Amino acid sequence: MPLRGLVLISGPSRSGKSRWAEHLAQSSGRSVIYVATGPLRPSDASWQERLRLHRQRRPASWRCREVGGALVDHLIELRQAPPSSDALEQRPLLLIDSLGTWLSHHLERDPEAWAALQHQLLEQLRGLHQPVLLVCEEVGWGVVPPTAIGGLFRDRLGALQQKLMAQSQAAWLVVQGRALDLHALGTPVPEA
User: Fold this and answer.
1) pLDDT, averaged across the chain
2) Which one, of 19, 45, 95, 35, lies nearest residue 68 by Cα?
3) CATH code matching the domain that covers 30-80+88-146+167-175, chosen among 3.40.50.2000, 3.40.50.880, 3.40.50.300, 3.30.830.10
4) pTM of the predicted model, to two decimals?
5) pLDDT of residue 39
């Protein structure tokens, strides 16, 4: 399957979604820019182990950009870079891992500031002329978060994923190590 436009890869924790995104990127035959949105957390040993495993899996030829919460700024820079002599088909594929860690950098924003940032993200992704694999966490599968910030994270992520789905060319749900093609299997839910 040739990759084009925005491709969403979602799933719960430890489902294999990052591995599936990496597989799609590697199978594309394109050069890859891996865009990491997570915090560095040098004092968190378990987080460092996760980062180490992610880094170990990636091919050495992939370029990595650790952007943390500055994903939108990074996408703006990519779009403003002077066009290269390469054909559009040769532009590098972007693998962004992940939407939830990016969102966690911005949970303290008020609703208006969040709406503006969300709009910027959607616009920047829409304006890219290369395939983008976007890894997204699935949250709220039956458990109501016990904290207000947990509920805000769940609600913002779910609403943003629906907006991203509307502009995606493909979408995968990865559960228990199995990837399901949502565009082939699913039907859009009508608006309220």
Assistant:
1) 91
2) 35
3) 3.40.50.300
4) 0.92
5) 86
CA–CA gap between residue 22 and residue 189 (Å, rounded): 29
Could you confirm whether 129 is annotated as catalytic? no
SS3 state of residue 133 = strand
Whether the pLDDT of residue 85 is over 80: the answer is no
Choosing from 54, 105, 106, 183, which is the catalytic residue?
54
Element (H, E) at 75: helix 71-80
Q: How confident is the model at residue 57 (pLDDT cuts 50, 70, 90)?
A: confident
CA distance 94 to 43: 29
d(CA 176, CA 178): 6
